[in-house]
Amino acid sequence: MSDPQSIQESQNLSMFLANHNKITQSLQQQLEVIPGYEELLADIVNICVDYYENRMYLTPGEKHMLLK
C-alpha cells in the first residue's frame, strides 16, 4: 500500500466515509433546481409506500430499498 495510487484511494475513501451524507446532500442540491421537485419527491415516496404495502418486491434487498 505504499504506492501513490493506493494512498490516494485510501484518502478518498476516508474522506467519503467521514462525510456519509454527501450523496444525500448532493441529491438534494440537484433536486432543488428542478421546478416542482417537491411534488416529484412526494410521488416517488408514494410509489415506494404503495409497493411496500402491496408487497411488490422480490428480494429482501428490494424491500429495504423501498424502506429507505
Concise structural overview:
InterPro entries: Cytoplasmic_FMR1-int. One of its GO terms (molecular function) is small GTPase binding. The chain is mainly alpha-helical and 68 residues long.
Task: Describe this entry's structure for a reader.
- This protein has 4 helices and no strands.
- It is an all-alpha fold.
- The protein has 2 domains: 1-33; 35-68.
- The relative contact order is 0.07.
Set down the secondary structure blueprint:
Blueprint: H1 4-18, H2 22-32, H3 37-53, H4 60-67
Report the order of strands and helices.
HHHH
Oligomer: single chain
Overall form:
flat
Q: How far is the N terminus from the C terminus?
A: 35 Å
The profile of the biggest β sheet is: none
Q: Compute the gyration radius: what is it?
A: 18 Å
Work out the number of β strands.
Answer: 0
Q: How many discrete structural domains? A: 2
Helicity level, as a percent range?
over 70%
Report mean pLDDT, rounded to a whole number.
Answer: 85
User: What structural class is derived from the secondary structure elements?
Assistant: mainly alpha
Number of discrete helical segments = 4
What are the low-pLDDT stretches, counting only 5+ consecutive residues below 50?
none
Bin the strand percentage.
under 5%
GO molecular function: small GTPase binding
